[in-house]
């Protein structure tokens, strides 16, 4: 199942059952808040009022492993998942491109990823970190992922693997 199918299914599942229950999007942003998060006024949801309280319970990440995981095997699977994520401007995956600076995995399934982009003004800055995090979360044995996007040290072509340089005709 790809991300588009997941989001389509989630949208269908979360859709309000009655038109009068659906929040009205504003004309500029088409933002819809879940009704449970909206304050009540006179027994009805006040769609215009700002939400001042955060939800009381955050959603649970993936299933937490009960036994320690095989860190080496799971890290290898995370790297394989990273190799499915591409910078759309460069026909090389983000791992071979050298955008992943660090990957740490704890026995309880918590992963830490430190990554960068080819430049701070990269046009995919808004989506690529999320794709990387999703790729790591999709690996069996991974419970949670913390991703840090950094620009120090800055990325340069010297961080690319030999395979990436060969693919781009730099060797």
Number of domains: 2
Q: Going by CATH, what is the homologous superfamily of the largest domain?
A: Fe-S cluster assembly (FSCA)
The CATH C-level name of the largest domain is Alpha Beta
Question: What name does the CATH topology of the largest domain carry?
Answer: GMP Synthetase, Chain A, domain 3
Structural class: alpha+beta
How are the secondary structure elements laid out?
Elements lengths: L2 H12 L25 E2 L2 E2 L25 H12 L11 H4 L2 E6 L4 E6 L12 H10 L6 E6 L12 H6 L4
Parallel strand pairs: 4-5
Antiparallel strand pairs: 1-2, 3-4
What does this structure look like?
By secondary structure, this protein is an alpha+beta fold. The chain folds into 2 domains: 3-45, no CATH class; 71-167, Fe-S cluster assembly (FSCA) (GMP Synthetase, Chain A, domain 3). It contains 5 helices and 5 strands. The strands form 2 sheets. It has a 3-stranded mixed sheet. Strands 1-2 form a two-stranded antiparallel sheet. The model is unreliable at 14-38 and 45-59 (pLDDT under 50).
Short key terms for the protein model shown above:
2 domains; three-stranded mixed β-sheet; alpha+beta; 171 residues; GMP Synthetase, Chain A, domain 3; two-stranded antiparallel sheet; 5 helices
């Amino acid at each position: 199942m790809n991300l588009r199918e997941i989001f389509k299914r989630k949208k269908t599942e979360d859709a309000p059952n009655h038109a009068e229950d659906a929040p009205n999007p504003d004309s500029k942003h088409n933002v819809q808040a879940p009704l449970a998060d909206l304050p009540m006024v006179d027994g009805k949801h006040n769609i215009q009022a700002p939400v001042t309280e955060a939800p009381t319970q955050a959603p649970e990440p993936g299933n937490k492993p009960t036994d320690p995981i095989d860190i080496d095997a799971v890290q290898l699977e995370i790297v394989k998942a990273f190799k499915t994520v591409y910078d759309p401007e460069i026909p090389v995956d983000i791992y071979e491109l050298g955008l992943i600076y660090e990957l740490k995995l704890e026995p309880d399934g918590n992963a830490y990823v430190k990554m960068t982009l080819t430049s701070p003004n990269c046009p995919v800055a808004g989506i690529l970190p999320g794709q990387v995090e999703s790729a790591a979360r999709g690996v069996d044995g991974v419970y949670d992922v913390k991703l840090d996007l950094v620009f120090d040290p800055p990325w340069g072509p010297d961080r690319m693997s030999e395979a990436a340089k060969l693919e781009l005709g730099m060797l």
